[in-house]
């Protein structure tokens, strides 16, 4: 069933110093539920080290236009990011999204936040095509992307091994000219 888009306001904004404690707590918790969904096939110890280094990076650097926090009615619930695929100026940007707290999953927050991020990326970059990359076990991410108009553009079959089961690696793409705008509530 298509979830109602959230009744609470979802916005993207620059990271603030006051966000660091909550971001650090969620990013560096090795038992956080999001770790079972965001590339869980990578060794956990390596992910923990990467996340600790990332939290340190956030503490040492100011906000970045290619990375925003997701704010739901004043509560920081996650982050979106983007990076340009090489070569610079080639028009291909890859987008990422992470909502830390499972209490905010499945209610339309991700659709709203990634939709805002697509719009921001089209407004502020020369992107011609956007991609998101996930795996076959992440049904929420796949459905969210397709609801926004992304289409499957690559599938490497059985490329990811997680708890003894093989899943496909899946990439979705969206052309600038295909963007229909944010889904209406
Ligand atoms: C993936 C993620 C961003 C999605 O955000 P969200 O707020 O949960 O997504 P939405 O509620 O907007 O949409 C989820 C879609 O999955 C469906 N869904 C919800 N719960 C589901 C479940 N348990 N199983 C399968 N599908 C489910 C919803 O019905 C909706 O699809 P629809 O619009 O076709 O009906 C979020 O769950 C998250 O951050 N998860 C952990 C980290 C992660 O996986 N990041 C992405 C890495 S590539």
TrEMBL record:
InterPro entries to which the protein is assigned, alphabetical: Acyl_CoA_acyltransferase (IPR016181), GNAT_dom (IPR000182)
Family matches, as PROSITE patterns: GNAT
A family per Pfam: Acetyltransf_3
Taxonomic lineage of the native organism: Bacteria, Thermotogati, Deinococcota, Deinococci, Deinococcales
GO molecular function, one term: acyltransferase activity, transferring groups other than amino-acyl groups
Keyword Transferase appears in the UniProt entry: yes
Signal peptide per UniProt: none
Domain of life: Bacteria
Protein name per UniProt: GNAT family N-acetyltransferase
Keywords: Transferase
Stretches assigned to the N-acetyltransferase domain: 10-173
SUPFAM superfamilies given in the database record: Acyl-CoA N-acyltransferases (Nat)
């Amino acid at each position: 069933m298509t979830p109602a888009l959230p009744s609470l306001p979802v916005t993207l904004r620059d990271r603030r110093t006051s966000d660091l404690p909550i971001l650090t707590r969620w990013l560096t918790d090795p038992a956080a539920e999001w770790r079972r969904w965001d590339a869980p096939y990578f060794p956990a110890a390596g992910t923990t080290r990467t996340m600790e280094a990332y939290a340190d990076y956030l503490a040492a650097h100011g906000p970045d236009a290619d990375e925003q926090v997701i704010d739901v009615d004043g509560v920081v619930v996650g982050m979106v990011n983007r990076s340009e695929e090489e070569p610079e100026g080639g028009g291909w940007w890859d987008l990422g999204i992470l909502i830390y707290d499972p209490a905010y999953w499945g209610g339309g927050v991700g659709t709203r936040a990634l939709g805002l991020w697509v719009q921001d990326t089209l407004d502020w970059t020369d992107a011609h095509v956007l991609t998101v990359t996930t795996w076959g076990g992440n049904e929420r991410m796949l459905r969210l992307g397709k609801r926004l108009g992304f289409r499957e553009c690559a599938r490497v079959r059985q490329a990811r091994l997680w708890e003894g089961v093989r899943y496909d690696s899946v990439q979705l793409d969206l052309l600038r000219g295909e963007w229909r705008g944010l889904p209406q509530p």
